[in-house]
Write a structure and sequence with these properties.
alpha+beta; 29% strand
Length: 68
């Protein structure tokens, strides 16, 4: 099992943008947090995502054999 770490978007988002991202993550059962920015103009969104030692391999199902 991979360890879980918090990924935080580093841009300030509007309420609509933050809610859209949170909705996408929660549909995949990923824990999220929404924090108000320091100047009260927007939101920061964080998601608890798995972190692996090795990057997952790309699928070669649709890759043309000539490109390999």
């Amino acid at each position: 099992m991979a360890k879980l770490t918090w990924f935080t978007y580093d841009t300030v988002m509007t309420t609509l943008e933050a809610d859209t991202i949170i909705k996408k993550y929660t549909s995949q059962n990923i824990q999220t947090q929404k924090q108000l920015s320091a100047d009260y103009t927007g939101w920061y969104v964080s998601a608890l995502l798995p972190e692996y030692r090795v990057e997952p391999r790309a699928s070669r199902t649709w890759q043309n054999p000539m490109w390999r």
